[in-house]
Amino acid sequence: MAFIILFIGGFNMALPDFGWAAPVQLFHGVFIDNALLLIYLLLTITMGSYGKVLKTQETLGFAAFVALLGGVGIVSAGINGYALADVGQALRLFLLGAFVLVVAHWSRTRGEAFVLRSYVMGVALIGVMPALRSQNGAGGVLAIAVSLSAWLLLVGRTSGDTTVAIACALIGTVAAAMSFSKTSMTIVACGLVAWIVALIRTTAMRRRRLVAGGGLAVLLAAGAYSARSAETSEVTAAVILSVKTKFANLDVTDQYSMRARYLYFWGVAEIVAGHPLTGVSYRGFYDAITSTATYEAGGMADEDPESGRRGQSNPHNSFLYYAAANGLPGLVVSGLLFVMFLGYLRRSLDVSVVSGRILWGCFALAYFIYGMTLPTLFDTPVLYVPAAVAMAMSSRQRGSRVPHAKVPFLEHPMEVVS
Fold it and tell me: Does pTM top 0.70 for this prediction?
C-alpha cells in the first residue's frame, strides 16, 4: 500500500488537470491517495503499530506545524463564513501532517530510495502522457522531479533506481521545456546542476561507477542521436527558441508575466492589512483581491469570475496564498515550515563537503522558486515527500556520525562512517 499511496500522489500531482487528465476524485476534494492514506492510518491504529510511526520528535514537530497551518485555516473559514467549503481544505493539511509521519516511517523501514522512487515514478509516468499528445503538462512538479531524481541517484543502490532516476530526469526536462514556462525552465536548470554533481559523486564511488557510467553513456547517446535526427533537431531548435523568447526579453511591465507576479505582493499586503489575524479564507481571495486599490488601479492580471466562484483564484504564490487566506498566522507558519524543510534538507545532504552545499543550494532554490510562483507547495505531497525523506536521513546520520576529518569534494555522505 505504501508504494500505491506514493505513486498515486506523484501521479495526481503531474496531471495537467484538463479534460482527459483531470485527477480522479472519490468525492469533492478527496482523491484516491487521500482515501488510501486514511485506510492505512486506520489499519495502523487498529493493529496497534502507530507507535512505530510516532517515533522521532523532529518528525512529530514538523507534522504538528503542518497541522497548525490547517488549524489556522479552520479558524479563518469559520470567521469568514466559508465553513462548509473551506474546512475540508484545512482538514486536508491535518491529513498531510499524518502523511509526513508515515512517509518518514517508510523511509526508515524501507529506505529513502523506495520512497523517492515510488513518488517520482508516478510523476514520470503521467508526465510523459501530455507530451505524447503534444499538450503541456504540470510543468512545476515535473521540473521539481528532476531534482528529486538526482537525489534518487545518490541514495539508490540498484540499477533500477538509476533507470527510474534517468527516465524521470529526461521526462521532466522535456516536459518543462514544452511548458513554455520560465518557472519550470528555471527549476529544471537547478535540477540539471544537481544532476551534474550527483553524477560526479556516484561515479567517484567505486561500487557504482559501472551503473552511473552506464547512465551517463545513455544520456550521451541520446544527445548524439538527437543531434543527428532531423525531426529531433527541429524540436530542439523550437525548445531553444522558446527559452530565448522567455528569458531574453524579460519585462517587469508585462501585465501577463512579471508585473502580475510582483503586484500580487502589494495586493495581498492590502488584504492582510485589512484582515491581519484571520485572512479571508481560501475561497475569499477573489472578492478580496478585486476590491484592493492595487487591482482597481490596473496592471494586475485579470481575475476570472468563474474561477473565483469555484474558489480557485489564488495569487500564484504559496506564501501569499496562506497570507491572504489565514492572515499573518498563515504567513508565519508557512514560512517556518519552509525554513524547517531547508534545515532538514541541509543536514541530510551533508554540507560539510562542497558537493553537498551545491546540492542543497540547487534543491533550496528550486523549491523557493516553486513556492514563489505556484500555490500548491504546502497542500500537496511535493514538499512533504522530500521533507520526510530528509528527516529520516538526518536522524539516521546523526545517530551514526562521530567527529571526523574534513572529507574531499567527491566524497558521498553515506560513505562517511564511524
Answer: yes
